[in-house]
Amino acid sequence: EALAVSQEILDVAPQDTDAVLQSAYIYSLQNKAAEAVPFLKKALKSQPGKPDLYLYLAGAYIQLEKYKKAIDVLEEGIQKAPDRDDLFFNLAVAHEHLGNRAEMIEALKKTLALNAKNADALNYLGYTYAEKGEHLDEAIRLIKKALAIKPRNGYILDSLAWAYYQKGMLRKALSIMKKAVKQVPDDPVMREHYGDIYYKLSNKNKAKSQWLKSLALEQKNDALRKRFQDAGFGDPDSLLKDAKQRKKKPK
After folding, report:
1. Terminal-residue alpha carbon distance, the chain
2. Most distant CA pair in the chain: distance in Å?
3. Within 10 A of 200 (CB to CB), how many other CB atoms are there?
4. How many CA atoms lie within 13 A of 178 on its CB side?
5. Burial of 231 (0-12, 13-18, 19+ CB in 10 A)
6. Which of 103, 130, 175, 228 could bridge across to 163 with cysteines, CB 3.0–4.6 Å?
7. For residues 27 and 35, is the Cβ–Cβ distance under 8 A?
8. pLDDT (average), residues 231-242
9. Which residues contact 160 (CB under 8 A, 6 or more apart)?
10. Tens digits of per-residue pLDDT, 85-121?
11. What are the pLDDT digits (tens) for 60-81?
């Protein structure tokens, strides 16, 4: 119904940017980004100075996994609006998908140069460092700054826990990770991190439990499946199947 209303507006006023963006947003919610691309491109031809159109078109390309096209659109948008931190942020996202780590980090730094309070960019850059175990003090500083802006964000808490894990501060990492999974209980990466911390602390029972929860949420994680088996925890697929069958049994 919302899409129909937006279309009615566009029939009368085809250059109504808000209606174009609303339609694009609805298509993205429906996982129909391909349908948003044509009218976003058409809108850009008639309104080449509108940064939001570049942003939404790039977002559609990212959803379609056409990352090179997203980068081209974002770079063109940045030429038109070099002060938009959200364009640089999405440029970082597209570069990450292509494995362009240096370009991703550069785009995040430009994002923060434009908006030092962009919590998502602070967390993104901090976690990028933490993931590789590099610049850990800087990673913690960035993530803490993001957390001050979004104090109840489970994903940022996970990033901070992981940075402390990489520093070998396991008890501190565990304390923070417990808070993270309370905020976001169904994220497979966070459950894997939780298990990693317990494993390093030699609490194998809890490591097994958390890794199993991670695999229940993301069964295609072959690397974790191998680690699970190498740790002597057995076949995770069989364990998950048994747990599922037990739940089905009447009490």
Report:
1. 44
2. 66
3. 14
4. 7
5. middle
6. 130
7. yes
8. 92
9. 126, 140, 143, 144, 147, 176
10. 999 999 999 999 999 999 999 999 999 999 999 999 9
11. 999 999 999 999 999 999 999 9
Tell me the H-state helices in the chain: 2-12, 17-29, 33-46, 51-63, 67-80, 85-97, 101-114, 119-132, 136-149, 154-166, 170-183, 188-200, 204-217, 222-230, 236-248
Joined tokens for residue 65: 């996994």
The per-residue pLDDT for range 36-45, each reduced to its tens digit, is 788 788 778 8
Query: Mean pLDDT for the chain?
Result: 90
Tell which residue, 243, 225, 245, has the closest CA to residue 235. 225
**Rounded CA gap, 191 and 47, in Å?**
45
Task: Pull the structure tokens for residue 114.
Answer: 């434009």
Residue 40 burial class via C-beta count within 10 angstroms: exposed 0-12, middle 13-18, buried 19 and up: buried
**Measuring CA to CA, which residue among 185, 180, 195, 186 is closest to residue 225?**
195
- Compute the distance between CA of residue 45 and CA of residue 162 in angstroms, rounded to an integer: 45
Question: Which tokens is 100 given?
Answer: 């362009």
